[in-house]
Amino acid sequence: MTNLLPKQAGLQVNGVFYRYSVFKETEDDMVVTIQNENALGSGYIFREVDDWSGLPSNTINKSVAVPNIDISYWGLGSLEVEGQGTVEDAEVFYSYQYDPCFDPQSSPDCPGYQEPFVLDLNEFAIVDPLDEDYIQNELDRKAQLRAQEEDERRRARRRIAESAQEEEEERLEDLLGIRTEDDFSKEQIRLHNELMDIRGIPKSYMWSYSGGEYRDTVVLKDSKLPSNKRGLNVRLAQEVKHQQLVNLQYGKGK
Fold first, then answer.
1. Which terminal residue of the chain has fewer beta carbons within 10 Å of its beta carbon, N or C?
2. CB environment 33-49: b (16+ within 10 A), e (fewer)
C-alpha cells in the first residue's frame, strides 16, 4: 500500500472503491474477495466478499464506506478468486482525508487538547560564537599568519627594487664610461694595439735615425704634388684611435 497511499501522518481512509469484470459460466460457483491486511496487527483491516455463484459474467462497480481508519493500519491489499471463472481489469481506489485533530494542539475542539508549546527566547542566553575562546584563538592565529605573509611580500618587493636599482646603476656606469683604473689601462692597451695593427703603417714609423743634419737634394719641377690616398687613410685611422684614447682618459665614452 506504500505505493498507493501517501506517507503523511494524520491521514485517514474513509472509503474503498473498486471495479472488475467477471467471466464465467452462469451455473458455476465463484467468489471474489477484496481485502487489506492489518499492518499493525493480525487479520484484515478491510475485507469485502462478492458471491458470483449462479450469476452470469458481468462488471461490478462498488463503493464501501469505512470509519476513518488511520492510514498506518492499511497493509498489503489483494484480490482473491475461489471457484470457476476469471477476473479481469480489476481496479481499487482509496478515499482519504486529513485528521484535523491528529495534532492535539491544533484546536481546543480536539479530544485531549494540549496547549501549544511556545518557546520563550528570553529564557536562553544569546551567545555570540565570536566570543568563544577557541574561535578567538583561531582568528588571532590567522591574523598573525596574514601579517607574516604581508611582511614576506614587502621584503620580496624590497629585494626586487634593490636589485633593479643596482642593475640601473651598472647600466648608467656603462653609459657614462665610469671605469676602474684597471679597466681603463686594459682598454687603453687594447686601443693602442689596434692602432699599431692597422694595415698600411709605413715601416719608417719604427725606424730611428742618428743625430745630424740631412739636406734636401731633391728639386721639384713643379709645386703641385698628387694626393697620397693610402697615407690619408692611415692618418684618418690613427686620428680615430687617438680620439678614442683621449675620450677614454677623460671619461667621455667607452
1. C
2. ebbbbeeeeeebbbeee
- Of 247, 134, 238, the closest CA to residue 192 belongs to 238
The CA R_g of the chain, rounded to the nearest whole Å, is 60
Residue type, 143: A
Reported as a single tens digit per residue, the pLDDT across 33-81 is 999 999 999 999 999 999 999 999 999 999 999 998 888 899 999 999 9
The residue whose grid cell reads 499493525 is 40
pTM for this model (two decimals): 0.42
Q: Is the dihedral of CA 243, 246, 248, 250 positive or negative?
A: negative
